[in-house]
Design brief:
Alpha-Beta Plaits; 35% strand; five-stranded antiparallel beta sheet; 2 helices
Length: 95
C-alpha cells in the first residue's frame, strides 16, 4: 500500500539544494519550488531517505516528511524531520 507524503525542504547551500531537488524529481510531483507530493510504498520511502541522507548537512538543512495517509484516503497525519528538528509553530499571532 502506498502512502501520500508532502515533502518540503529548506537547504542552505545552492549546490545541495540542486542535488536534493533533482533527487526528489524521481519520487514525486513538484508542487512548489521546495515542495513535492509523493505516493510511496515503504521500500521507495526508505530508498528516498537513503538517497537524501548523504546530500544533507544535518546541522543546517531540513527536510520534512508529512504523511497525508493512504494514497486512497485523506485520514491520518504524521510529521517527521531529517536534519534540523521540526518545531510545532504556535498559531497565536502577537502584534
Amino acid at each position: 500500500m502506498r502512502t501520500r507524503y508532502l515533502i518540503c525542504y529548506d537547504i542552505c547551500h545552492p549546490k545541495r539544494l540542486r542535488r536534493v531537488a533533482k533527487a526528489m524529481e524521481g519520487y514525486g510531483v513538484r508542487l512548489q519550488y521546495s515542495v513535492f507530493e509523493c505516493a510511496l510504498d515503504e521500500k521507495r520511502y526508505r530508498k528516498m531517505e537513503a538517497e537524501l541522507q548523504p546530500i544533507l548537512n544535518h546541522d543546517e538543512d531540513q527536510v520534512l516528511f508529512v504523511s497525508l495517509g493512504p494514497e486512497d484516503s485523506s485520514h491520518g497525519l504524521r510529521i517527521e524531520a531529517m536534519g534540523l528538528p521540526y518545531l510545532v509553530r504556535s498559531r497565536v499571532t502577537i502584534v
